[in-house]
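In response to reviewer comment 3 from the previous cycle, which asked for concrete evidence that the modeling workflow produces usable outputs, we include below a single protein chain processed end to end. The sequence was submitted unchanged, and the resulting structure tokens are shown without manual editing.
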Amino acid sequence: SFPSDSPNSCFHHSANIWNCKWYEIKNSDKTYILVAHNGIARVVNSYFFDMSNEDYAAFGVKNCEILEFCL
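The workflow returned the following structure tokens.
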């Protein structure tokens, strides 16, 4: 976790998600569930889909919405 007053905290969170071992998840026989707020959901979505800055800023997940990402 990064301090919220850090000017780079958003970038640190993004880097941690992008550097996640997705290949290990992909090659696993398990199903994973990620429960996240919009900030993290936005970063995960940008990992899987090309997004313009406008798309990134506008992206949001509704309460209780379920998104599925296939590796």
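The mean pLDDT is 81. We consider this sufficient to address the reviewer's concern, and the full set will be provided in the supplementary archive.
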